[in-house]
Write a structure and sequence with these properties.
The chain is of the alpha+beta class. The protein has one domain: Creatine Kinase, Chain A, domain 2, CATH 3.30.590. It has 16 helices and 17 strands. Strand 14 and strand 15 form a beta hairpin.
Amino acid sequence: MNKDIEARNIAMLTDHFLNGCKQNFVQKLGLEVEHFLIKKDTGASVTYYEPHGVEWILRQLQSHFPSLEEHNGHLIGFYNRDYSISLEPAAQIEISIAPRDNLASIRQIYLSFRELMRPLLEQENYELVTVGYQPSSLVNDLPLIPKERYSFMDRYFQTVDTRGRNMMRGTASAQISVDYTSEQDFVQKMRCAYLLMPAIKLLTDNTAVFENKPWNGWLCRTAIWNHVDKARCGIVPGLFDPDFGFRKYASYIWRLPLIFLPHTDGGPYGTASGKPMTSGNAGAPVYTGFSPVSELWQDRMFTPDDIDHVLSMAFPDVRLKNYIEIRGADSMPLPYLMAYLALIKGIFFHSSTVNAITDQFETIRAEDIRNSELSLMKNGYNGMIYGIPAQEFIHKVLLLAESGLDSADQELLAPMQELCENRRTLHD
């Protein structure tokens, strides 16, 4: 391996994260929500290819959007200045709302999307549902959308563990992105998000069914993700090391098995030795399996598109791009989405609150987070988070969030406060 190229590529990743630091800015939140499109009469998911299926639905809506995303003649998404619509592997419909500083604005954008969909769904007797797992369909009955990325991932995950197919075809999540102002701010927010992850997962637990059977326990999506691929899921390695930062996250990405290259030009693994891949020489994607990023780029430099791709292939519970993406929550109905946004805003918009959490739990490590999640998976609100009863821990988190919000946003927390008070989850 060329050590000089390795050092330069890791430096490029590190610089990418450094360039994501926001200075003198208005803090904003981005929201992504995945939905299942189901048939009201059966509860089965509408697939991509079937008559009046998901692609047909998208075609009926495309005139409302200035920009489309097509793949080999198939429509797979579109976007405007407020949000984009894209598809997950088995045609789960995802809305990604551009970052906003105002929670009411996020709510209004989401409602406008639902209102755009409503007449067409009523016409077809379809429904968009927000739960963490397929309400009726079995994953083996669901085809993938026409995107090579998902075919390669499907092939790879069948070789590493037992639940990759369930993750890709069966799950739906809600993800929130937050900004960071410096490397230290990133470290504190990343650690804080992981420390809160058991509480977040129980508060947003909205999965009562797995493969059309009742799920016996809680945190079904966590149980699935625990058996997808330990190399790219769960907790980022070295999170609590004293030297954790941009470079350590870059090194994690550098060692990641990549699964596939999106564009190739015919050399080893589809690349020409010593040459960056560019749009001018790009060919068909190629499956690379367990070959790590370090091997695939051992003799060439990253391009900006390369960096976007390799970062997108890591799936930890909290992910770094040029923002921090908190990924542990189930998809859920709008009142709970707004409560979740308010919780994240109330905590992560205040460095003093973030630092107070990381200071209070400074001795907690990755194994403690995993053990807490296992306790909640088995016992729900009877479980423990770092030795603290789950209800007590979550109540304190909600109080912290409330203290960081104005009165209007405080009201949004009410659905989650009620869940905690009654020791119930959306799953229940």
